[in-house]
Amino acid sequence: MAWIVLVFSGLLETVWAIALDRSAGFSRPLPSLVFVGSLVASMAGLAYALRDIPVGTGYVVWVGIGAVGTALVGMLALHEPATLPRIGCLLLVVAGVVGLKIFH
After folding, report:
1. How far is CA 70 from the centre of its chain?
2. In total, how many domains does the chain have?
3. N or C, where is the chain less crowded by C-beta within 10 Å?
4. Residues 41, 76: Cα–Cα separation, whole Å
């Protein structure tokens, strides 16, 4: 159960990162509220997961999911560059996260 919560919390990290960008410095109410709600839920899920998962592994997996998710949303929906080097680096992050899960 802790791993499922951790993955969901990592996905919520993507939500709050995108909402933070869309809030325009907290000048737009709806994205600002989405940011706060998803941030709190993401942190709560991380805290829950860390009861059963070592902090080093849990934190890196959480950040990795959030970072890769945010970069993918940026490339697929926000017209950020999707160059081969960027994609390659994201694959390296995924490989590291998977490795930490496997060798947990």
Report:
1. 7
2. 1
3. N
4. 25
